[in-house]
Amino acid sequence: MGEREETPLKSPHFVLIHGISGGSWCWYKLKSMMYNSGYMVTCIDLKGAGIHPSDPNTILSFDEYNEPLLHFLSSLPPHQKVILVGHSAGGLSVTQATHKFPNKISLAVYVAATMLKNGVLTEQDIKDGVPDLSEYGDAYDLEFGLGVNQPPTSATIKKELQRKILYQMSPPEDYTLASMLLRPGPICALLNAQFPEVNECVEKVPRVYIKTMYDRVVKPEQQDNMIAKWPPSHVYSLESDHSPNFSSPFALFGLLVKVAASISCT
C-alpha cells in the first residue's frame, strides 16, 4: 500500500524504500525532483508504515513487513526492470528483493543503509548493520505487543532525541514534518530479516552504496564494514546526516541520476 503515482515520460523507473518508522512521505523532495525531471518514480509504504493501516506491533516476520515491495515487484510486466533505492533499514528490503526478484532489478542503491548479503544472521551482522544508540542513553520508546515479558515488538526514537540523532543537519521544517509522521517500527520483524538461502543471481544485480559522512544512526564505520564485506560496484559519499533525503536532497538526486545513467535500464 502507498503512493504509486507514475509518469511514463522517461525511463528509468525508481522505486524508493523508506527506513524504519518512516514511510513513502520521506521521499517527497526526491519524488518531486524526479517527477519534474521526467523520471518514473514509485514510493512504497511497507506494512505498518506510512499510511499502511496495519499495527506494527502485529508484524513479526520480515516477509510480512516487506510484502508491499515484493507484491509490487511480482506485479511488474515481464522484462520491466526498476532501480531500487533503500534508505537505512530499507536496505534489508532491497536485499531481500534482489534475492527474490533479481531479474526485475537493474540496480540496487543503498543510502545510509543496512547492506548485509544474508540479512541479520550473526552477532557481527548486528554490530555492523543495526544502529547502536547506547551513547544517548534510553533512546527508544518501546512497545510490547506480545506482553511485557517478551521482546519488544516496535520501537521509536524518543521525540526529544530525534533532531539530535536523525536530523541534525536537516531543515527545521523537515524535522517538524518527520516528528509528526514517524510511526513505531516493527523491530521484531527487522531483526528476523534473514536470507540464508542465497540466490546466486543476486550477484548479477549491480549495487551502489551512498555513504552519509555525519550519520549518527548507521555510523560511517558501520557503513565501511558492510561495504568491505560485500563490496558494491561503486561507493559515493554525501556530507549529510542520516537523512540526506531531507538534508542533501539535491546532491542525493544528482547521485541517483548519475548511477542510473551508468547502467542500461529497460
Automatic annotation (TrEMBL):
Instruction: Identify the residues that the record assigns to the AB hydrolase-1 domain, covering every copy.
Output: 12-233
Q: Which UniProt keywords apply?
A: Hydrolase
Q: Could you confirm whether the keyword Protein biosynthesis appears in this record?
A: no
Molecular function via GO? methyl indole-3-acetate esterase activity; methyl jasmonate esterase activity; methyl salicylate esterase activity
Recorded hits in Gene3D superfamilies, A to Z, give: alpha/beta hydrolase
Query: What domain of life does the UniProt record list for this protein's source?
Result: Eukaryota
Q: InterPro entries annotated for this entry? A: AB_hydrolase_1, AB_hydrolase_fold, MES/HNL
The biological processes this protein is annotated with in GO are: jasmonic acid metabolic process; salicylic acid metabolic process
User: What name does UniProt use for this protein?
Assistant: AB hydrolase-1 domain-containing protein
Q: Which organism is it from?
A: Lactuca virosa
